[in-house]
Structure formats: C-alpha cells, structure tokens
Amino acid sequence: MSIVDKTPTESADNVDAGRVRRGFFREPERFALIGVWIALIIFFVIMVPQTFPSTANLSNMLGSQAVLLILALGLIIPLRAGDYDLSIASVLTLSAVIVAALNVNQGWPVWQAAIVAVVAGFAIGVLNGFIVTKFDIDPFIVTLGIGTVVVGITYIVCNSATISGVDRILSKVMLSKPFLSIPLDFYYAVALCAVVWYLFDFTAFGQRLLFVGQNRDVARLNGVAVSRLRWIALTCSATIGAVAGVVYVGTTGSADPVSGAGFLLPAFAASFLGSTALRIGRFNPWGTLIAVYFLVTGITGLQLMGAQQYVQQLFYGGALVIAVILSKIVRSRSERKRLVK
Amino acid sequence: MSFAPPTVNGGGAVGAPTGLPLLQVSHLAKAFNGVPALREVDLEIAAGEVHGLLGANGCGKSTLIKILAGFHQADGGRVLVNGEEVPLPLGPRGLRDHGMAFVHQDLGLAPSSTVLEHMALDSYGASPGLRRVSWSSEVARVEELLARFEVRIDPHATIDTLSPVQRAMVAVVRAVGGQELLADDGESTGRILVLDEPTVFLPRDEVELLFALLRRLKAQGDSVLLVSHDLDEVLAVTDRVTVFRDGRLVGSRDTEGSTRGDIVQMILGARDEHVPHEATTVSDDAVPMLSAKSISGQRIRDLSLDLRAGEVVGVTGLAGSGFEELPELLFGARRLRSGTIEVDGRRVSRPSPGEMMALRVVLIPADRKAEGAAQGLTVVENLALPFLTGHSRGWRLRWRELRELAQTICRRLNVVPPNVELTFGNLSGGNQQKALLGKWLETEPVVMLLNEPTQGVDIGARREIFRLIRAAVSDGMAVLCATSDYEQLVEMADRVLVLQNGRLQHELTGADITKDSLAASVYSEGAA
After folding, report:
1. Are B27 and B148 in the same domain?
2. How many A×B Cβ pairs under 8 Å?
3. Domain ranges within chain A, ordered by starting residue
4. Does any domain span residue B86?
5. Does A19 reach chain B within 8 Å, measured CB to CB?
6. DSSP codes joined into one string, B358-407
C-alpha cells in the first residue's frame, strides 16, 4: 500500500484555511453589540437632544453603573469555569450592611469596616467552593442556598433596618470627580476590568480556567487541578461581590437588606450579553463593560423619553434572554460550518 | 440447562404459521458522508428463534440495529415484517410499532425508580399523561408478566437494589411487556426482541439466568436478535447466526453443527498477510519505565505489567474485558482500587494526571471530542495547555513563544491547515490526532499511554501517526497502546497483552502477533 501524504480531507482543509480571516477584522459579529450601542446613542441624541447628551447625564450613567460592572466582573470568573454564582448579590448586600453597621452603629473607622466586609465575602466564597468541590454538588444549587442564608445573616446584622449616615469619606473616595466630570468609582470599575482581562488572557490561571469551563475532562487529563480552580473562582466572585458592596454603600451613603438583590439579574444579563461581543462565546471583561453601558444607555434614554420604572425589568430581562439565544445561534452556526466541511 | 421451558404453546412458530420469516431485511444500504457502512445486507429472522448477529468492530451490525430502531435512515433496501413490506424510511419509532422491541447495552433504567414505575411508564406512554394511573391494575399486570417469565423480582424494588443480571432481566421483560401493550388492540403477531451487547457488563456465572429467560421467550413464539462479541454465549443460546464484515453480509448458518473456528473464520474472513515491523527486542532485565503491580480498577483485576524503554506494548480484548480502561487507570485518571504503580523506579503513591505528567507520563485518550481537546477553543490554546507554566514571565504568559511552539508542532507533524488560530474542531480527525500527538511528544515523555490512537483517522494520517510513535520509541520512549484494531497491533506492537474479564489471559510477542492469533486469543475460552 502506498503512503499518500495529501489525503482529500487535508486538501479540503487547505481550501478552508484561505477563508479564515486573521486579526482584527475576523468575525465582524464581534462588533455587533458596539454597533447597536452606537446606533442607540445616536437615536437618543436625536430624540432627547437637551437631556441625553448633557454632561450631567453622561456622568450619571457612567458612575451609577460602576457597582453593577464590578459585580458582573466578579460573576464572569466562575462563569468562565462553567459555574454559576447566585449568591454574589447577597454578598454585595451583606458587605454593604456590614460597612454601615460597623461604621455607624459601632463607630469603627470606615476602612476597617470595609476590610471586615471584604473578608466576610472571601469567607463565603471559600464556603461555596468547599461545598461545590468537596461534595461535588451543582454550584447553582449551592450558591442559591448559601445566598439565601447570607440574606438571613444580613437581616441580623442590620436588625432589619436601613442604616444611613456612613462616613462621608467613603462617598468622597467613590464619587468625587477629579477629571472629565466622571465619578471615581467608574475608574475603579474600569481598572478592575483591566485586571480581569489580564487574568483571563495573559495568565496560565486564565487559560486553565477557560479549559475547566469548556471541557472538564480535557482539563483534568491535561493535569489541570479542576476542583481547586473552581474553588478559587467561586472565592474570587464572592470577594469581588463584597468589594462591590463597599462601593455601593459609598455611593449611596446607606445600606439596607433588600436593594442589593436587584443587582443579580442585571449582572447575569451583562455577563451573557458581554459574551456575544469581542470574544464570541466567551465571557470577557471588555464585552461585559460594553454590555453594562449598552443596557444603561437604553434604560436611561427610554426613561428620559418618558418611560416608567418598569422599563428596567423589561430591558434587563429581555437582554438576558436575547443574549443566551444569540450565543446559542452563533455556536450552532459555527458547528454547522464545521459539519459542512 | 436446569430451566425447563414452560410448555404453554409447545414452543415453535405461534405467530407465523405460514413459515414466513418474521423479519426480512434485504439489500439494506447505508453510507455516512459517502463512506458505506452497510452494503446491501440481508437478514432473516424466523418466528421463535434466537438469532445471533456477529462481526468485528465497524462491521455494520450496530448501524443495522440503529436503522431498525429508527435512529438512522436507510439509503436503500427493503424491510418486510411477516411478509408485509414496511415502507422506508422508517419513522423515529423504527419497527417498534411492528412488534420489535429494543434493549440497549445501557438498559435505560433509572437507578432510583422501581421496577413497577418503569413498567407503568409504558402503559401510559402514548396518552397525554393526565390519565390517572391505576396502580392496582399495574401491579397485577407487572406481577403476571414477571411470573410468566419466571423472573422472581419484587415489583416494588428500586433498580439500584438489583444485581446486574436482574436489571438486564427487568429490561428484557419490560421490553416484552411494552410490546404486549402496543399489540393490545391488534392481533398478536410474533415479536422480535433486539438485545444489543446485553452481557458485556454481566458476571459470567449469571449470564445463564438471562439466557434461560431468552429461551422462555422463544418458547412463547417470540424471536430474539442477539448482538454480541462473545462467541461462547452465541454458541450457547442462538439457533442461527448471521455474520457481517466491512458492511457486507458474509452469510448465515445454523448454530448447531458450527464450531467456534467456523464462526471466527466468518468474522475475520480470508487470512491476512502478516505486515511485520522491525521488531525490537528489549531485554527483560532492562529497568521498566513504568511498572504496575497487581492493579485493580473498575473492570481490571489484579493486573501486573512492565513497560520498558524502547518497546510498544499492545493491550486488547473484547469490549468489556477491561483493556479500554488500562491507559486511564495507569494515568491516574480513573480510581485505582488496589495495587501500586512505579515510574522509573519511583513509587507513585496517589496517581493523578498532574502527578503522572510531572513524571513525564502522558495519555492520549480515545475520545478526541470529549477528552482529547476542547473543540471550541483554538489550536494554539489546546496545544499550549501543558506548557503554560514553562512559558510565562512571572504571571504573564508569553503568547508569542506559545504560538511559535504550536506552529512548530503543527509543522513537524504536518498538521493541515497550519493555522494555529483556527478553532480546533475545524481540523479533520486525522489532523486533530496528529496535533495532539505532537503536543504530547513535545513534552518529551518517557511513557506514552494511547487509547485507540487511530479511531476515526484517515489512512494517510494513520501511517504518519505510526511512524512518529515508532520514531519516539526508538529514541527510548515506552508506549502502551490499548486498541481493538488488530491490524494496528500487528503493525506497531512488540508484544500484546490480551485481557479477558479484567485479567491478563495471553501474551503474544514478536512474530506471533498476527490478526489470526490475536483473534484466536481474544475469542479463546477462558483458561481459568
């Protein structure tokens, strides 16, 4: 039997290689979300020219979403490993309440209170990861349960009441506008975005996390410590959730046991919508950032045009569902491409 | 046989007094992506017979079963039930509405549900699901069914409390019961029960219980189509056998008067010429690179082996004999129940993939899609995974180096197309396997564990893969290759271990490794 080096399949592959565009302009779908976002901005500039493009509005939009962005950035770490963290918003609430309770009721310095809050978040993450990996239980259920327990603890800490009057210094650190009239918390969130980006794209940790999320068996058979990475990822999300809580209490000056829960769905919506931008099919920080501001642009614009409060629910809920449909379509299309060959 | 068949109908042909075959398949053809899997095969099953369907891996027997079950659609041919033509293509229910019932290897039973619940599922299967289940009449029906086939199992027992053979019997009785429900209104024609490799997971001494059940079915006029690898079982229970090879019908013959030799000859066909490679002989006193002492896993029992530098050791056996488990067991990817593993003279206390990789032992798994590579990630990402730590400055990965590394691997292994930014799943099977082989060779392993390394790989890539492995072996690597592809063992292996029921049964070396000798030892009767 003669050895044929170039089999028909291989030459078919060669043809296919010619169609693969390299670099920035491959897969133009990657920029679809940015395109829609820009179109949305232009639409509102035309429709509400007095209020929408004003400095006050831009500053408000950018600053008000920093908490959500930080929370979503925490969320995409376990999501990259294929795990949900449903407790992250409860951790945010607990953290905010701890800062307020220690600072206002106990008279602690606000930075000490903030450290305690972040450590509490860290501990909850360690617990989540422990239960998930040691007993091999779906994190969806574990974090749902732990998240509810955390809500209960929050009520105990704040005695079921809103605590206001948190040290002004924290507000200053979060809300002062040193340049471009944009509050500082926006810059913190962008800085965290860069950190997560570095972690995801430029470290071995990020690559291994990606494999854990894409195919656990492949990761395991390549010597990746799957359980440890999932544990670390869940610890990261809870810790970042607590940081988001500190930022939240800084921006509002008070904390209550309910309002944090409203962040959970928007954070998921932003994460999933973000995975349809820039790196399609992957949870990525810059895509998440774009998604957060895309969503707030739509909501703010519609409210300025006279829409009621309910537009938020319609927008966030709709965005989440549309995002998962989109990513499914993109994925099955690329699989079809593969099969056609 | 200690079981006397109940003399209800005196056995024989109840449903087909005319002598027509119960099922007649003729000229059935099927191709996948232009590659023929079935080339105009015929199959006839008479009423009241146990019929064996045999053939080596890839001979087309599972394709035929899947067509009859409605999972694949035939490209051409005819199917007749009781002499009446059933129009092709068959719908998604296959021949289920024509008296055929299927029991697959995994049995399809839920561990925590009871026997009764499984069987009740069938009686409200077709209704919208809101009809009240009459539990008392269900209990009566199930008890009658179990009693009729002399299966002594409590209907209220959950599946996980039953022994493997009891589960298989429940699946069989359930399939028969389901057919009875379907045939309730129409006249009761003969039924055909298809059993796909039902005994692979059963302890040998209990298989006879299942066979007694099959004989009782036969006595009631039902037919059984038994797909099996195990010739002893086939000879023991069937009346006729049909053999496929390479998608073609070899023939059918009565089991009575057939020897195992006759059937092996039909399965393997004309004797193949021996394609030897330059056999390397490694002296027995060379220090083994990997040494396992009386290891046991899920299927493997008390197995010891040494892999020495510069040799390729093949492992083979029937499906379920445990040979497929060995590479992962040695790599620490499956739990080692007992025994010890030494690499290069050092004992590995708790084998895990990470630990074995650190000792430069690597595994190339059989299932590329599920275990070999993340299909949705790029080639460079997949190839870089074992090298991340070595190619980073502090925390930061040096992507440029990793990309160059991946390009080098692709160039050296002739992976086409050589674009490392491509999604891995877009490569053909052969190129995927070459890329993975290149990745692991790049780690300069001392031991390479292969599991079906050329499954779904085209012939050109297959040659290249053999050549690369032999080259690495002559540089001092030790290789273990688990496969059911005898030709591959003939071409590659210096010695071959043949497993039966999880134990080492034969060892062939050098020129003794031929397709015939391998088949003979794989199918041989257990020495124990």
Report:
1. yes
2. 120
3. 64-257
4. yes
5. no
6. HTTEEEE-S-IIIII--TTSBHHHHHHGGGTGGGEETTEE-HHHHHHHHH
The C-alpha of A266 sits at a distance from chain B's nearest C-alpha, in angstroms, of 27
Whether residue A138 lies within 8 A of chain B, CB to CB, comes out as no
CATH fold for the domain made of A64-257: ABC transporter involved in vitamin B12 uptake, BtuC (1.10.3470)
Record the tokens describing residue B478, joined without a space.
């030790």
Contacts of A203 in chain B (CB under 8 A): 392, 395-397
- Give the pairing type, strands B50-54 and B223-227: parallel
Is the Cβ pair B384, A5 closer than 8 Å? no
Amino acid of residue A335: E
Nearest CA in chain B to A224: B354
Instruction: From chain B, pick out residues whose CB is under 8 angstroms from the CB of A6.
Output: 460
pLDDT tens per residue across all 341 residues of chain A: 333 333 333 333 333 333 444 455 566 777 888 888 888 888 888 888 888 888 888 888 888 899 999 999 999 999 999 999 999 999 999 999 999 999 988 888 989 999 999 999 999 999 999 999 999 899 999 999 999 999 999 999 988 888 888 888 888 887 777 777 788 889 999 999 999 999 998 998 999 999 999 889 899 888 889 999 999 999 999 999 999 999 999 988 888 888 888 899 999 999 998 988 888 778 999 999 999 999 889 888 888 888 777 888 888 888 888 888 887 777 666 555 544 43
Identify the sign of the CA torsion B57, B59, B61, B62: positive
List chain B residues with CB under 8 Å of A338: 423, 425-426
pLDDT exceeds 70 at position B4: no
In this complex, the residue of B363, B384, B463 whose CB is nearest that of residue A221 is: B363
> Shortest Cα distance from A142 to chain B (angstroms)?
23
Q: Write A314-321 long-range contacts (CB < 8 A, 24+).
A: A316/A265, A316/A266, A316/A269, A317/A265, A317/A269, A319/A269, A319/A273, A319/A291, A319/A295, A320/A265, A320/A268, A320/A269, A320/A272, A320/A273
Tokens representing A214 are 């894409």
Q: What is the ipTM for the molecules in this complex? A: 0.77
**A14 shares contact with chain B (CB less than 8 Å):** yes
What is the 3-state composition of chain A as percent helix, strand, coil, each rounded to the nearest 5?
75, 0, 20
Surface of B (446-465) touching A: CB under 8 A: 458-461, 463-464
Query: Could you read off the pLDDT of B238-256 as tens digits, one per residue?
Result: 999 999 887 888 888 888 8
Nearest to A218 among B372, B414, B464 (CB): B372
> Any CB–CB contact under 8 A between A218 and chain B?
yes
Range of the domain at B90: 23-268
For position B189, what pLDDT does the model report? 61
Closest-CA residue of A relative to B422 is A20
A283 interfaces chain B, CB cutoff of 8 Å: no
Q: Would you say residue B356 lies in a domain? A: yes
How far is B504 from chain A, CA to nearest CA, in Å? 26
Amino acid occupying residue A245: G
